[in-house]
Amino acid sequence: MARCIFCGIAAHEKPAAIIHEDEHCVVFRDINPQAPVHLLVIPRKHIASLNDDLDGDRELLGHMLSVVGRAAKSQGIDGTGYRTVINTNAEAGQSVFHLHIHVLGGRRMGWPPG
Ligand code: AMP
Predict the structure, then answer these.
(1) Regarding the domain delimited by 5-105, which CATH topology (the fold level of the hierarchy) does it fall under?
(2) Is the CB of 79 under 6 A from ligand 1?
(3) Tens of pLDDT along 14-65?
(4) Terminal alpha carbon distance of the chain
(5) Among 76, 53, 50, 77, residue whose Cα is nearest residue 64
(6) Active-site choice (12, 24, 46, 100)
(7) Ligand 1: does its nearest atom lie under 6 Å from the Cβ of 49?
(8) Domain ranges of the chain
(9) Residue 98 falls in the annotated catalytic set
(10) Whose CA is nearest to atom 20 of ligand 1?
């Protein structure tokens, strides 16, 4: 079976514009940005989606959220604002089955989302 693309990015086997990485997660630019700033925050650990049993991953998930805020600040979108999105399964538009938090900013967002 082909290796998960985001596992490949986390392992530096696949190219990506990485803006932050640490022991637990990696942040890189989305290849098809939907806003002037569009980042993806992923865990190094392969988690397919929020539908997984995540009871043992609470610390990791909390860490990812703390990284979101710091990454937004590093891109200068913390003051104007940004949106965080996690798509889960087909109707939400999940296309990569390795958990990721989208961080979008640099333009005004509409609500409700499409
Ligand atoms: P989702 O549709 O919520 O699963 O989001 C997957 C996101 O990953 C999409 O916004 C894609 O543009 C992005 N993406 C897919 N492959 C890559 C890649 N190799 N590098 C950066 N972003 C990617």
Answers:
(1) HIT family, subunit A (3.30.428)
(2) no
(3) 999 999 999 999 999 999 999 999 999 999 999 999 999 999 999 999 999 9
(4) 33
(5) 50
(6) 100
(7) no
(8) 5-105
(9) no
(10) 31
